[in-house]
Sequence to fold (180 residues):
Amino acid sequence: MQQIETHRLILRNFSETDSQGLLEYLANPRVNCFLDDKISTLEEAALKVQKRSEDDSYVAVCLIDSGHLIGELFYLKEEPDTYSIGWHFNAQFEGKGYASESIMAFLKYLFIQLGARRLYAYVEDDNYRSQKLCERLGMRKEGYFIEFVSMTKYEDGSPKYENTFQYALLKKEWLINNPI
Fold:
């Protein structure tokens, strides 16, 4: 991926210098969908960074002034032109608008550079911050899936199913507020 700069951020491929930043937010995932990514050592972080550095579908979000990794954006392409998108940010940097700023630039990249026609994101029904973020980005709530997926278990070992919203945005909708 080509590097993208916003006012305060750099979006780029992961690099070996990102291990500490990745460990900071993957050591204690706050959203169940990231439990499989949980790591506890710098060595595990380095291995994940290595894999992500070779995969353009993972985008590092870094502060422009220090280069410090504060989160990531990611996508999964579904042929021919639909992309599932997501994000994961370090809680220490919440409430400063970094997620909105980076994802706005990410949407432009997906729509203009990669030719996406449709983007969608899944958000758990108790993840209010991401729901509000989707709405600020102009995404519409398309669906609500009851007991959609299980990322964790109850104490007795039975699966705990998550209720999940789906938000989506078409390129033609995005272009109304973001003319090229």
